Amino acid sequence: MIDHPEALIIRPPSEWRSLLVRITRGCNWNRCRFCGIYPAMGQPDFSRRTLDEIKHDIDLLIRLHPGAETAFFGDADPLAAGQDTFIGAAHYLREVSEIQRLTCYARASTLHKLGPENIRLLAEAGLNRVHLGLESGDPEILQFHRKGQSPEMVVTVARWLKEVGIEISYYVLLGLGGRDKSEQHITGTARIINETEPEFVRLRRLWLYGAGSEGECPLMQQVRDGSFIEQTPEGTVFEVRQLLELLEPLDTFFACDHANNYINVSGLLKEDREDMLREIDDFLALPEEQRQAHYTRVGSRI
Ligand code: SF4
Predict the structure, then answer these.
(1) Residue 212: per-residue pLDDT
(2) Which residues pair with 104 in a beta bridge?
C-alpha cells in the first residue's frame, strides 16, 4: 500500500485544521451547470474507496497531524460510499483518534435517499455536522442549474438532521439567478433558511472560471447563448444585503468566508444582523470609483 494519504480536491475553508479523509473520489452527480469543478481539477470520474484504504489513510493522517481535533470526510459526496463504508470509517476514526468533531460534504439528494433512520445511524457513528450545498432556495433556479434537489427536499433533510443533532452548514451561491432572477433567488433562499434555521450559512460568489478553455465552467455555454446573464459585482453585494434583510433573527452564524466574495460580513443573525447591514451600507456609500477598484482587486480562486 502507498505510504501517503490520498488528498481531497476541495475542502471547506473552515476545515483547514481538520484531518482530511478521502472517502470517495470526485462527485457522484457532476451535473450542476455552475460547478464542473471536479473534472476541471482532474477528477472527472466518481469512485468509491475501500474501507481498508480509508483506514490506512486515517492511520497516516493521525501520524502526520497528531494534534488534530477535528476531521472532515470528502470528496463531494462521501455518503455515496455506502453506509457500511462511511460508518465504518467514522467508527474507526473515533476509535483511534481523539477528534472532537467530524464533518463531511453531503448532497441533499443523497441524504434524502438515506432517510431518517440511516441519518440517525450517522449521528450515532459520530457525524457532527454536514456541509450542504443549498446554493439557492428557488426551485426554478435549482432546476435550471441541474442541482438535482428541490427546496422541499432540503427542508425535509434539514428536519431529519436536526432531529438527531447533526449541525447544518449551508452554502449559498450569490449570483446564481443571474441578473434576471436575482430577487427570486434571494427570496427563495431566505425562505429556506428561515424555515430550517441551520447553524451556519456560508456565502460564495458564482465564479465562471476558465472561459474559452477546455476546462471552463459548464455554465459558460448558457452565458454565450444568452440564457444566463451574469450578475454584476455590485449586484452580488446587493444580494447579501437583501438576504440579510429577509432573514429572521435566527440562531445561525452567517459568514462570507471565501476570498471571492466582494463583501465580507459575518456574525450571528440574532445579534449581529444590524451591524452587518451597516457595514454593507458603509461600503455602498463609498465613491463609485473606490467600489469599482475594490471589485477589480478581489480575485477569483477555488
Ligand atoms: S455542486 Fe456539488 S453536487 Fe454539483 S457537480 Fe459540483 S460537487 Fe457535484
Answers:
(1) 86
(2) 73, 130
The domain ranges of the chain are 13-291
- The closest of 96, 168, 97, 92 to 125, measured between CA atoms, is 92
Q: Which stretches of the chain score pLDDT less than 70?
A: 1-2
What's the pTM?
0.96
Q: Which residue's C-alpha comes closest to atom 2 of ligand 1?
A: 76
Topology of domain 13-291 in CATH is TIM Barrel (3.20.20)
3-state secondary structure the chain: CCCCCCCCCCCCHHHCCCEEEECEECCCCCCCCCCCHHHHCCCCCCEECCHHHHHHHHHHHHHHCCCCCEEEEECCCHHHHCHHHHHHHHHHHHHHCCCCEEEEEECHHHHHHHHHHHHHHHHHCCCCEEEEEEECCCHHHHHHCCCCCCHHHHHHHHHHHHHCCCEEEEEEEECCCCCCCHHHHHHHHHHHHHHHCCCEEEEEECCCCCCCCCCCCCCHHHHHCCCCCCCCHHHHHHHHHHHHHHCCCCCCEEECCCCCCCCCCEEEHHHHHHHHHHHHHHHHCCCHHHHHHHHHHCCCCC
pLDDT at 177: 98
Strands 19-22 and 24-25: unpaired
Per-residue b or e along 60-72, where b marks 16 or more CB atoms closer than 10 Å to that residue's CB: bbbeeeeebebbb
CB of 142 within 6 A of ligand 1: the answer is: no
pLDDT value of position 84: 97
* Ligand 1 atom at shortest distance from the alpha carbon of 76: 7
217 alpha carbon to ligand 1 midpoint, in Å? Answer: 12
For atom 5 of ligand 1, the residue with the nearest CA is: 30
